[in-house]
Amino acid sequence: MRISNAVHEARPWHIREIAPDFKVEDVWALPVHGGAEDFQALLELMVSLDPADSQSLPARIVWRARDRLGAWFDLGRAAPIDHGRADAGGKLPIPGTTETSLIDRLPEDLSNTAADLNFSSTPFASLYRTDDEYAAELSNRTMHAVLHLAWVDQGEGRYQGQMAIYVKPRGALGKRYVALVNPRRYRIVYPALMRQIEQGWNTRISP
Q1: 162-187 as b/e, with b when 16 or more CB fall inside 10 Å?
Q2: Which of 41, 102, 121, 167 could cysteine-pair with 50, CB 3.0–4.6 Å?
């Protein structure tokens, strides 16, 4: 399911202009296909998912362990947080800047385009939405990150979902944290997430 970062970066997504100082950590082709009008359905599915409730026991353990460690070491939680609280990570500046949110970088035509999309079980906060693109951000003690979803034209009226993760670690601690968790994300978290997405999508379209 993982694809080359260059495939994602070859397209003129808005996020590349909004977050040019962020690194594309990885890109994934989602097990989701549909017509041009189905992007909204993908977004509704993604914001409703609860990775901590995955059918995969290892994935649940990893997610909940991250949440517990975040509480112990003040790293910010993997469960939903109140971005209005100063201790929740949402008020931390984006590394290397004085900004606390990418929402301040949005052009006028993208402002308030995704206010109705709220994640139920993860700490992402929506940034913007277009007909084929969506972005959300999170902030904690280790990094500022962006979840980017795209609806990619495959030709002949067929589209496929694509997910990219952008990150900006907070100093040496953030870099070590990303290096530490990436192997677990690739082996455990993402495979379970892809199965969860596929099941949710197939359930939606089943008669």
Answers
A1: bbbbbbbbbeeebeebbeeeeeebee
A2: 121
